[in-house]
Design the sequence.
């Protein structure tokens, strides 16, 4: 019985299905108390306006609160900041609504959005299976060239994390025919109202996901 070590790779570009909005209200005041009061006032007004737009406060989470002393002697003002985050559908129309809201008078509020996939674990498993299939095909060619055949797996390891061993019991040879990637990316946040500006028709950048494996195949 022989063995051969073969790597495998798989990757796919997928459209994100949700975004995380990060809003930070950051104001200044002559004292820490005044800076904090100013921040809280704008923050409460901001949350109220978001609620009017259909963004429910109970879906939001405060990720940071901060009150800072002046950094230099010539800086008289204290500053205070509060950051909140919440999920939205990965739709530019929704992001544009928040842009417009911030521009309507929230001068001390900064805004950012990041996009991601809600079913990453499922996609990662599918890509790992594809990478295993890629490795198996190469192993079959090597086995054919040496007059042997692949009979099993001795060991398997993910390239990106040398400390993470795959469960060999899940890697039986039947996976060659398994469908690897989910048919669709699930939506996480429901539908949003359609808006008409051209910028609403833009799409977030796709996310590239990859999987790499090293597998020791048994030959006989």
Sequence:
């Amino acid at each position: 019985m022989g063995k051969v070590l073969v790597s495998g790779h798989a990757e796919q570009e997928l459209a994100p299905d949700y975004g995380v909005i990060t809003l930070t209200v950051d104001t200044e005041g002559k004292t820490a108390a005044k800076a904090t009061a100013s921040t809280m006032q704008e923050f409460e007004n901001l949350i109220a306006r978001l609620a009017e737009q259909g963004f429910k406060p109970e879906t939001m989470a405060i990720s940071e609160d901060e009150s800072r002393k002046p950094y230099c002697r010539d800086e008289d003002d204290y500053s205070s900041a509060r950051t909140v985050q919440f999920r939205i559908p990965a739709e530019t129309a929704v992001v544009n609504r928040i842009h417009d809201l911030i521009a309507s008078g929230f001068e001390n509020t900064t805004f950012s959005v990041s996009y991601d996939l809600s079913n990453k674990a499922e996609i990662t498993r599918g890509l790992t299976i594809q990478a295993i299939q890629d490795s198996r095909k190469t192993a079959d060619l090597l086995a054919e060239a040496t007059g042997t055949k692949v009979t099993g797996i001795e060991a398997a390891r993910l390239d990106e994390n040398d400390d993470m061993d795959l469960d060999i019991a899940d890697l039986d040879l039947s996976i060659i025919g398994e469908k690897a990637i989910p048919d669709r990316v699930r939506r996480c946040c429901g539908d949003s109202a359609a808006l008409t500006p051209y910028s609403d028709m833009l799409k977030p950048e796709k996310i590239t996901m990859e999987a790499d494996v090293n597998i020791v195949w048994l030959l006989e």
The beta strands are 2-14, 18-29, 61-68, 78-89, 109-116, 150-158, 207-219.
